[in-house]
Design goal:
By secondary structure, the protein is α/β, with parallel strands linked by helices. It is about 45% helix and about 10% strand. The protein contains eleven helices and eight strands. It has an eight-stranded parallel sheet. It is globular.
């Protein structure tokens, strides 16, 4: 599978011709990355628009923290947080993804103009999710998930993390297909940081080709995550705060783009927007060089 075919196209979404940049808007008071700076609807909409100005191709809006130890918000509160922000951004022409595990929130966000549903549980947290997304004809992100990260429920043991994540994602994709979601509207996500330690995350990043082998566009969401803090800290140091991991995030974005990822999900957009464009330019230069070499070979055959 070539990088371009692996990157793929998601039906119902624009085609950007390179790895897309998904900016993050957390409408939560307890986000691990921004500490609730954009909890207010007006501030959240402004932040989303700022991310687009900085180079985001689409914006992912979520109203529930999924950090380890976080407790779930109730449905009414999640709706109150998410739907007005989705409506505000889509009214400005922004392509919006909704980050939710609840079918009701997905349905209301799609009705408000969202174009994509990003469910970190891959439809496992709410049995109504897959039927709702299928009925709406919306694209759907299927993330590798082993349960809620609360009460010590991490389940981070693997004999072969790449093989197990690929197999479990494949099984989940098959279930989503059986639930009526079209194959050209499925995106897969390895779930970096979810029931995984730093070694697991790095190993998955080293084998993105195996994830692309599932045959669906790939979303890589590494932004500011704990494994980057561990890498930056070194063997003895303390991990830097989440907001000091953006350069490392951009490095992962460049690697993911080079590997053929469809999109990367990030909090700080500008550096990653630059990184994916450079990766695309290098890819284009390599393709041009290959075309020239093939042309020279053809001339020699005459």
């Amino acid at each position: 599978m070539s990088k371009q075919s692996g990157r793929g196209r998601v039906a119902g979404l624009p085609e950007w011709g390179r790895c897309a940049v998904m900016g993050v808007v957390n409408v939560t008071p307890d986000s691990f990355s921004d500490g609730g700076r954009f909890f207010d609807t007006t501030a959240a909409v402004k932040h989303g628009l700022d991310l687009v100005t900085e180079g985001a191709d689409l914006v992912d809006v979520g109203g529930e923290s999924t950090r380890p130890g976080a407790t779930r918000v109730d449905e009414a509160e999640e709706l109150k947080r998410v739907v007005p922000v989705v409506r505000g951004l889509t009214s400005e022409g922004v392509t919006v993804s909704v980050d939710t595990m609840r079918a009701s929130v997905a349905e209301r966000a799609l009705a408000a103009g969202a174009a994509l549903v990003n469910d970190v549980s891959g439809g496992l947290a709410d049995p109504a999710m897959v039927p709702a997304v299928a009925a709406a004809g919306a694209p759907f992100v299927v993330m590798h998930w082993r349960g809620f990260l609360e009460g010590g429920n991490v389940k981070g043991a693997y004999d072969d993390v790449v093989a197990e994540v690929v197999d479990e994602l494949h099984a989940r994709v098959e279930a989503v297909l059986a639930g009526g979601i079209s194959p050209d509207r499925i995106v897969v996500d390895p779930g970096l940081g979810f029931s995984k330690d730093a070694e697991h995350d790095l190993t998955l990043l080293a084998h993105l080709d195996r994830l692309l082998g599932l045959g669906h566009p790939l979303l890589v969401a590494a932004s500011r995550k704990r494994f980057l803090g561990r890498v930056l800290a070194g063997p003895q140091g303390a991990p830097p705060p989440a907001r000091e991991r953006d350069a490392a995030t951009a490095a992962v974005s460049a690697l993911a783009a080079h590997a053929g990822a469809w999109a990367v999900r990030v909090h700080e957009v500008r550096a990653t927007a630059d990184a994916v464009r450079v990766a695309r330019a290098v890819e284009s230069a390599r393709s041009a060089e290959g075309a020239r070499a093939a042309g020279n070979g053809a001339e020699g055959d005459r």
